[in-house]
Description:
The chain is mainly β. The protein is built from 1 helix and 10 strands; from the N terminus they run H-E-E-E-E-E-E-E-E-E-E.
Amino acid sequence: MNLWTRFWLAGAAVAVGALTAPAAAQAATVTVNLSLTRYQSVGQIDAGPVVGVSPARIVVRVGDSIVFVNQDSGGRHTATGLTAARGRFPSDPRFTDAALAATGTIGAGAWSTGELAPGARSRPIAAEHPGTYLFGCFYDYSAGMRGEIIVEP
């Protein structure tokens, strides 16, 4: 076997190895569905009652992304981080109009999907730091539309 053939075979083996790398090493994208009409039953998580979010609690790893989907046909929603919650849903989250713009990453301070029209999907929002993060809908927070994101290392 000549030198060129050996070089080509070695390169092919490296390329095939890269294509078959284990999926566990790759970041995942998790979908959270928002709908007050589809997910009416109130659930309970450690931080308090939840309605309109499925799943209400998700567990992701650092580097994973989350996409929020508005499945309601007539209502606008957001998923907006609650930075001062300290493990409980606040009674008054003091959302500002900034919650209506897509910003931030989970774990790095304030974040929001921005306003999601019926049928819309958010951009992927990366989970950057381990911890437990609560979120709620700017429009429907008082109705219990909120959830919890657990980011593991």
